[in-house]
Amino acid sequence: xxxxxxxxxxxxxxxxxxxxxxxxxxxxxxxxxxxxxxxxxxxxxxxxxxxxxxxxxxxxxxxxxxxxxxxxxxxxxxxxxxxxxxxxxxxxxxxxxxxxxxxxxxxxxxxxxxxxxxxxxxxxxxxxxxxxxxxxxxxxxxxxxxxxxxxxxxxxxxxxxxxxxxxxxxxxxxxxxxxxxxxxxxxxxxxxxxxxxxxxxxxxxxxxxxxxxxxxxxxxxxxxxxxxxxxxxxxxxxxxxxxxxxxxxxxxxxxxx
Length: 257
Known about the structure:
The protein is mainly beta. It folds into 2 domains: 3-148, no CATH class; 163-254, CATH 2.40.50. The protein is 5% helix and 50% strand.
């Protein structure tokens, strides 16, 4: 039997053999036309129209979902995506090519009106599989029901760097500070630009002096600073050829690194 598709007469037809399982564990098998865009397993249960069950997502578009119109509740795991809708099934078993199929005539529909949802049947692995009539769906589906999914733009939170002013002389980034400790365990021993050492978590840090009357030591990755006062400061970083500075109002201060 010849079959007309896209205004061309061809001898071969391709179908997907699909399984539909009810919540009562009954199983049905149907054949669906192959002219699909793809298969999706993403389902959004949102019924905006009584003609369909929800949406299947495919390539950022949402296609209204239909399935075989029997008075039963099915497990729908996969969705064959056609031009204007998606057909839900429990499983896609195989894709086959056939040369002909047995088509139901008007007399058969008069005797068995429940067969109106099918166009005919094929034989697959010694079983009779009904071919679902996709044209009936196209007639019942509303126009322009496919919608493009809106992607929410993710707002990238920029981490704000906090800066501290040390004794009105230097600025340091919060993330560079390991800790601030009391100078009680500080050991004075002057050498080079350092005034002594302090131990913290089994590591010894050489210490420089910002204020000789300070009671606190600020530790960064490889050294410490003896200081008296610390406050948060607001402004912006300015770049020099060799080092960074921090500008706040009329103050321009070096950044400790």
